Amino acid sequence: MQTAKRIESFSVLGNYLESFVNNFDKIDTSENQEKFNQMLHGSKAKNSWFTIENQLYAIKSWAEALKKENLEKWLAPYAQIESKNKTIGIVAAGNIPMVGFHDILTVLISGNKAQVKLSSKDDVLIPYVLDLLFEIEPKFKDQYESVERLENYDAVIATGSDNTARYFEAYFKKVPNLIRRNRTSVAILDGSETEEDLEGLAHDMLQYFGLGCRNITKLFIPKGYDLDKIFNALYPWKDIIHHHKYANNYDYFRTIFLMKQIPILENGFVLFKEGEDFFSPISTVSYEYYEDKDKLKEHLAQNEEKIQAVVEKSESGIPFGHAQQPQLWDYADNVDTLKWLMKL
After folding, report:
1. The domain spanning residue 204 has which CATH number?
2. Measured CA distances, 158 to 45, 50, 150, 187, 237 (Å)
3. 11 and 137 assigned to the same domain
4. What is this structure's pTM?
5. Which one of 36, 127, 258, 274 has the lowest number of neighbouring Cβ atoms within 10 Å?
6. Cα separation of 338 and 71, whole Å?
7. Can you give the residue range of the structural domain that contains 201?
8. What is the pLDDT of residues 105-143, one digit of tens each?
């Protein structure tokens, strides 16, 4: 299959997904639309973190990413992609909807075979999307295999926690591998942010309940910054506390902080704790004051292995509100997966 054909197939897939999202709440639906709607409810029943709203947001983001012009822009730097016909084992994450899809897409569009161990947290949505792709272009079905255990692979892409990453590194050490560990994202504020910027920041913090590696869990703020500005921007997300799992996290960590007499700021659905930690538990965010932005940049560079994305109001940063909207060329851990595959 030529690259142009692969691009066309994924582009059609994006069009289908966009149509399904746009027609989700319509009264009169087609049979295919009804299957899509039922799939979303089935996915939510399997994993309550995957609310209908979060699934629709993820699918809509992928529909945009799969526009033909985006696919062509993504692949343009690689000139002619020559299929290596390798079997690439993928251990997919499942913390947010379709988070493992980029690796699958990259393997398939490069002409290799994807042997995938899906996360049990996301084994409804991704198979549904792939079945759509196979209907569009049946040849892709020969390039994909869903398995419970990876076997007879030429290389591996595996995503997990820091603990599982150590296991992956030992287990897959005999083949080329990309092993991804825990990462999180940070935001740098300088006081010049508009209300719209801060509304975007709130989105970056709480979309997907903060479960993604691109969610903001750490804020760097200048001395004297008025945190009420952020609390005001967060207010529209107040109903997040009605999700039982999120509420359980909020109550648990609030209790822990109070028992340990750790000072916190709270608004009824997010806990703010001052500290140097980059990682924060669900329902909490840490913040740290800074005086010199150059020194802060040095600090972030020294801890780059912990950071997935940096949101700030500058040309080098990701704009507020866009942390959860990565482009196809925004690779996890800043490792060019497609280039890595082509060098196998």
Report:
1. 3.40.309.10
2. 26, 22, 11, 27, 33
3. yes
4. 0.94
5. 258
6. 13
7. 184-312
8. 999 999 999 999 999 999 999 999 999 999 999 999 999
